[in-house]
Amino acid sequence: MELPYAEPYKIKVVEPLYRSTREEREKWIREARYNLFNLRSEQVFIDLLTDSGTGAMSHYQWSEVMLGDESYAGSSSFFKLKATVEELLGMPYFLPTHQGRAAENVLFSALIKSGDIVPGNSHFDTTKGHIEYRKARAVDCTIDEASNTAESHPFKGNIDLEKLEDVFKKHPREKIPMCIITVTCNTSGGQPVSMENIREVSALCKKYGIMPLFDAARFAENAYFIKIREKGYENANIREIVKEMFSYVDGATMSSKKDAIVNIGGFVALRDKEIFDKASVFNIMYEGYLTYGGLAGRDLGAMAQGLKEGTDFHYLESRIGQVAYLGELLQNYNVPIQVPTGGHAVFVDAKKFLPNVPKEEYQAQTLAIELYLEGGVRGVEIGTLLADRCPKTRENRYPRLELLRLAIPRRTYTNNHMEYVATSLANIWQRREKINRGLRIVSEKPIMRHFTVELEKIK
Ligand code: F0G
Question: Which site from 94, 195, 229, 445 is most exposed, i.e. has the minimal number of CB atoms within 10 Å?
Fold first, then answer.
């Protein structure tokens, strides 16, 4: 018999979970004002809110924690990390930051000014937030296939070259400080960008004198998809693919809480010394001295080790395989999801799941609340709440996709947990016809409202 698949690791430390009752959850979610961010973690059985900083570190990473050098300047942990970034990504200049959005803050402070245009593939919300905060505009140039959840396309994170060139033609070069390629593209479903697309976007950028950059949070997951889906890369190893990917860009912002499998950390990586010098000033101002950037030495060491583990094929096969497994279970129950499944999460199509709930009543958030009540499972809305209001008109922006994201932390849950999640959603699917009212906003903040918004149920 052919041997079945099994994870390439075993579990050394466990964290007990509490299984609550539906009655308890009804009370807790009311108290949380129907915002899942307001729940205490003990009130959650399976937490798929995010894959960011929630993974399990290996014992090699924990030993790096012990080896951490806590010197203010010139820490050996910094040099270990800098060497790893240079070796893996081929980027000679490097600034550590406390997480991904801090890297955005540092780099954008050096490069983006009021009135600028920043094209890319569905910028992540903090990225867009940092662009809009500087009174610049993010333009989404993702291919149209990405907004059809049922259409299978191997690289739904790709940038539409015509849309991108349109932006380049419409605006003067000085107004476009960069083009951001998000690998994988979180907002459109953890969907990868092909090497061919990266290469072509890079060439187009160079033609117009614009700097291509990565939002690299899930670069290794992107490389895995290139290996298994793109012709010509079947036999390349992940690290070769990563090197080639980065060879087409001039720099990157990184949230290490994803593919570097650490609980905190990020960085800016750059090819150009001049930009590095400019950004360094902001790093010192916002993050800390250049050799620690808002992190402890131990965090830097764990990150260096995590980058190596995160770019290992067998690890990626297990990680992305688990995401695909949840996707298959849901498809077996006919639950509408974004296909193919992405790298870090399964995205449930809430428009199709709850068609009787009006879009003004936040379909994806309504589904997220139902899932919590059903099984104590916490997902996150990637829809109208996240899309926020138009900065000019203050009207709700209704995105093309209204999704419930089930993000899987790395090396944390077992496939039994995945079965529990799938069954919880299947139970809601069976009674979906009866769900016809959603939620209304009671209070919200002017920017990034989804973190703190307070809602109530419409009776
Ligand atoms: N870019 C992408 C593509 C992201 O997914 C995130 C974070 C960031 C940048 C910001 O990084 O959190 O370290 O400051 N995404 C998390 C998520 C929060 O749940 O998807 P950060």
Answer: 445
